[in-house]
Amino acid sequence: MTKTVHDITKRTSIGAQRNPASEEAILTAAAEILREGGLSAFSIEAVARRAKAGKPTIYRWWPSKAALLLDVYHRQKGETFYADTGNTREDLIVFLETLLGFWKTSAGEVFRSIIAEAQSNPDALEALRDYAVTRCLASGVILNRGVARGEIREGLDIPLVMELFSSFCWQRLLTGRLDASREQLSHLVDAVLTGFATKDRRAQ
């Protein structure tokens, strides 16, 4: 029988190194609380109670509420944002559509709260900064595929370019304008691509 977070009542802390069972229980408890009660119900105390974990353990692994929320958010998000259609332009449009669509769910509220907390909490800011850097690196797979296909020139600062696209999405999230049309997203992608597409691609 598969155990739930509530079945796991005794765990062993192993210092700064995360105990896999404890980590899974804490993340599962955090996700359940968010799903059932939203952000207003979310706190380290509530997560600790449901996961049957000590608050010191949680704070040792996640130094702020935002850091824990980021891990929960990322588990919800997964790695499904980098479609390979065989065309870099279309891949980028799909990436933008998918991210903006994902933020129309409760995940958007979670991510906005993380950004808000980062404005006054140094630990939250560090967690958000690290997350943003890793996501720009991960989403760079879209442009790396374009380089391999000869659509994008070599030597491009790919994380920086992906930060341009992500910044557009963040601004839309923070100003409540997630309903960008495919036409608008196409214009955005085309405007950026003309700056680093290969000469052959520009001529098409």
From TrEMBL:
It comes from the Bacteria. It comes from Agrobacterium albertimagni AOL15. One of its GO terms (molecular function) is transcription cis-regulatory region binding. Keywords: DNA-binding, Transcription, Transcription regulation. The keyword Lipid metabolism does not apply. It holds the Pfam family TetR_N. SUPFAM superfamilies: Homeodomain-like, Tetracyclin repressor-like, C-terminal domain. Signal peptide: none annotated. This is Transcriptional regulator, TetR family protein. InterPro entries: Homeodomain-like_sf, HTH-type_TetR-like_transc_reg, HTH_TetR, Tet_transcr_reg_TetR-rel_C_sf, TetR_C.
